[in-house]
């Protein structure tokens, strides 16, 4: 190899190494992994496998076919990992839904079945048909992921100041994944073969910078669901007096209802704490220790109550529009929270009202 190729190989290998380290941290070392963190770890791991295969195949076309098969198989899980990472981030869920697990398991089983037909003994199958199916599946999930982010993209172009740093990070990860997909597709059909490497390098750098933000900044851990990281350690040994907690809870409830603060999809715990003149960590303590719920759960209760009233009044508003009206930032977030609180989807709830009266 020339000196330039050696440098390219070294930088590419470092990108893969960084990806493996980050994915290991997210999947194995990070305590109490929320779904967004887990799926991001899977996304990084699968992309690292795919990029690793691309690097070695680029510099060694005679690479044993089993490694090519592993790299292609990893592609089958990149799309689902990206999709559920974004879905979990937007929904701010603390537990992975069973349907998500079964869906992801389906693709894992397909990967396992693929190894029953090894590349070495079925080369035509893996050269012609499998790559096309994999890239098509990957493209579908990229499109679905983009659809989940449609509100964030709208804000990006028309109201950039309203995007949170966490949302910007999710958008950048999606953008990186999109670029990698385009790079590999173009390389696969014979255009810009060097994009096989440059696409992977770009994503590795972008993802690495974002992961540092997620891991080190307590302020932005809300993208991985749950209350702000570290707050419990700050006040774990201090308790709010029950009488004071009752007064604060009543004041908080009245403020939210009167000003309908829950309708703001970008409402933060710090913003709410300022309105009742207490520190953010004390409000977090009030919610977690005294009211036994997270900030998102508490606010979503107000949103669901308002949504139920709108559904019951039936003024012709679409269910998805009701979700945005009461403060949810996506359809998936609305449906997940509604089912969690009411035990039924908005459509099922509406049907129950029409057949059995108000619930």
Automatic annotation (TrEMBL):
Domain HTH araC/xylS-type: 250-352
A Pfam family of this chain: HTH_18
Taxonomy, superkingdom: Bacteria
Coiled-coil segments: none
Transmembrane segments: 6-28, 40-60, 66-90, 102-121, 133-149, 170-189, 195-215
PROSITE patterns: HTH_ARAC_FAMILY_1 (PS00041), HTH_ARAC_FAMILY_2 (PS01124)
Keywords, comma-separated and alphabetical: DNA-binding, Membrane, Transcription, Transcription regulation, Transmembrane, Transmembrane helix
Protein name as annotated: AraC family transcriptional regulator
Species this protein is from: Dyadobacter subterraneus
Lineage summary: Bacteria, Pseudomonadati, Bacteroidota, Cytophagia, Cytophagales
